[in-house]
Structures are given as structure tokens and as C-alpha cells.
Amino acid sequence: MTKLLLRALAGETLPTPPIWMMRQAGRYLPEYRATRAQAGDFLSLCYNPDLAAEVTLQPIRRFGFDAAILFADILLIPQALGADLWFVTGEGPRLSTVTSASDLARLKPADQVDAQLAPVYETLQILSRELPRETALIGFAGAPWTVATYMVAGRGTKDQGPAHLLKDQDRATFAALIDLITDATIHYLSRQIEAGAEVVKLFDSWAGSLKGQDFDDFAIAPAKRIIAALKARHPGVPVIAFPREAGERYVGFRAAVGADCVALDNSVSTDWAARHVQTEGCVQGNMDPRHMVTGGPELVAEAQRITRALRGGPHVFNLGHGITPDADPDNVARMIEAVRSA
Ligand code: CP3
């Protein structure tokens, strides 16, 4: 019996799509909040293999998703490269900034990230022992552009202004930063696969702010290099790429980077994606996470509409972005039931 997620990622059209949810382990779940309180802060939870495995398993036990996603964060890579990282409650991440060639020179080489990241590999080892046999295990990393936006600004930004500024004023330094993150990501994801990840996903949450040649240079080229290196080392391990808000650049993206599946955000029309993106291969998505808060008959109708619209080709059901802390867990159960009965 091949796991449902792996079948969809191999290009199979299935009567019922596999389902999982971005941020499925998170603050909307009381059991997550309890384990997080036990760990202390968010980063302590990420680096505690037993507790990180526990929160990864919680949504599997509660909802029976077809896949579990490693509990960690895309900003562990900057930290492993030597950046300071902390989270301010209610505000989000803060990092020491990289805005010049001399800042860049102070970071560690890409192959020296393991000392910091070893607990993440251990989390995956625990999960590959403990997950139900039908549940696929997904590892992940941030795509280089998105990780760079946080490293340059030292925090999340609405418009990624500081990263754009460095890219436009000192392209050589910016490109060298992208290269370093790319190399570290290849190393990190390779180790995740060796520790038990059966699928990997690249999160390019801010891909939509890259236009024209910048999109080719900083969204496509690094993803293509990461995926080619992973495919050479670990043939057969599928990759999901998520160029969030790429808009029309979703067309051709999967093939351009060599991924097995492209994840759609919720700004993309499902019918448009069925005609222009799914005809090229597997798609993931793309329900608006706001339905997990509002619920009601609209939730059921929307989950079934998406399932039916993408039934003609390979599809992985998911949200278009992460579930939010104010979501009602009962709505998640209703969404799953709606998809599986569509
Ligand atoms: O999807 C999953 O459940 C797997 C784990 C995961 C987390 N973050 C856990 C997390 C994954 C895949 C991520 C990815 C991530 N992290 C992204 C890319 C995807 C996206 O959402 O666009 C980004 C940009 C980050 C960086 C990050 N981490 C931010 C901006 C924040 C703060 C936002 C907030 O809601 O406070 C985080 C924190 C974070 N990462 C939480 C979780 C469960 C909340 C932490 C907590 O418990 O307080």
C-alpha cells in the first residue's frame, strides 16, 4: 500500500485527494498550547525532539491527516548559519541583520549547520518510528528568497523592502547570501531525508514580491538548484514547491524548478489553476484559511468545490496558507469530512 500523498505526488489522479494542512500543529489546538507551555518558548519546542515530535503527531491523532509535517521553522537555518534569532510574543521573529559583505562574511559555511540542527533530525527519526503506516512524513525548509527577506530585515516585513534594497543596490552581496542559503538548504534537506522525511516542501512565502528577471534569479534559480541536488542524492523523494502569490508565474513553475507538485495560495482561482497549472502536473491547495475560523455551510461548500474542481488530475488538498490561531478545530474536522465525501 503506497501512502496516498506519495501517489498524488507521483502524478496519480485519485478519487479522494490526500489532505494535510499548513501549520496543522499550532496554537489553534489546545493540546499544542499545553505542550508549548511545557517546552517554554517556541524555539525551545523546535529544538526538543520529544516534544516537537509530540506536537507533530497531535493533529494526526485528532484528525487523521494523510501527512504529518515536521514541527520546526524556516528561520532555524539563519540561526544555524550564526544569526541571532528570537521571537517576540505577539509580534513575530527577530534576527540579527545581514546588510553588507562584512555581515555575510561573519556567517558560518553552509556545511556547518548540523551542530545546531541535529535535534531536528532526531525529531524526524522519532516521527518515522511513531507515525501510522499510512501517514506520510514531510520535511521542509524556507526557499532562499523568503529566508533572505528575514535575514536582511531582521524581522518579517509587509513589502520585503530591505531585501529588495540590498538586491538592487548590492546585487553581488545579495546573490552571495542567496547562494549561501541555497547550499545550507541542500545540506539541511538532504539530512532531513536521511532522517526519515519522505517528501520535502520549499516555502517561498514572499515569492510574489519578485517580478520579472528577479523572479527568475531569486525564486526559480535557487529552487531549481536545491531540487536538482536533492534529486541527484535522493532520487524518488518528491518535492513540493510553494511560490506563494506567484500569480501568473504559477504557469510553468513546477517544471522550471523540477518539483513534483506546486502549492497554490488562496489568491489563485481554482478553476484557472485546473486549466493552466494542474494540466502540467500535481497541484496542492487552495482553500482560504479564513474558513477555518468562520465555518458554516460555506466551509463545506468551498471544500467540496475545490475538491471537485481539481478532481481531473493529481491534487493534494490543503489550505492556501497556514491555519490561524483563532481557527476552530471542529471546522478542520468538518473540512476533512467534506473533502472525503465530495
Ligand atoms: O506547517 C507546520 O505546521 C510546520 C511547522 C512550521 C512552522 N512554521 C511552525 C510555526 C512551518 C512549515 C513554518 C514555516 C514558516 N515559518 C514560514 C513559511 C510559511 C508561511 O507561513 O508563510 C515562515 C514565513 C515562518 C516564520 C515564522 N515563524 C513567523 C513569521 C512566525 C511568527 C508568526 C506568528 O504567528 O506568531 C513563526 C512562528 C511559528 N512557526 C509558529 C509555529 C507553530 C507559532 C509559534 C508559537 O507557538 O508561538
TrEMBL record:
Primary localisation category: cytoplasm
Gene Ontology CC annotation, any one: cytosol
**PROSITE patterns with a match to the protein in the record:** UROD_1 (PS00906), UROD_2 (PS00907)
Note the superkingdom of the native organism: Bacteria
EC number(s) on file: 4.1.1.37
Q: Name one GO molecular function term.
A: uroporphyrinogen decarboxylase activity
Pathway the protein takes part in: Porphyrin-containing compound metabolism; protoporphyrin-IX biosynthesis; coproporphyrinogen-III from 5-aminolevulinate: step 4/4
List site positions: Transition state stabilizer: D73
**Which EC class, in a word?**
lyase
Q: At which positions is substrate bound? A: R23, Q24, A25, G26, R27, D73, Y150, S205, H321
**Which keywords does this Swiss-Prot/TrEMBL entry list?**
Cytoplasm, Decarboxylase, Lyase, Porphyrin biosynthesis
Instruction: Tell me the compartments it is located in.
Output: Cytoplasm
The Uroporphyrinogen decarboxylase (URO-D) domain covers which part of the protein? 18-27, 138-154
The catalysed reaction is:
uroporphyrinogen III + 4 H(+) = coproporphyrinogen III + 4 CO2
What biological-process GO terms show up in the record? protoporphyrinogen IX biosynthetic process from glutamate
NCBIfam families hit by this protein: hemE
Q: Which family does it belong to?
A: Belongs to the uroporphyrinogen decarboxylase family.
What this protein is reported to do is described as: Catalyzes the decarboxylation of four acetate groups of uroporphyrinogen-III to yield coproporphyrinogen-III.
Q: Assembly state and interactors? A: Homodimer.
Name-wise, this protein is Uroporphyrinogen decarboxylase
Species source reads: Paracoccus haeundaensis
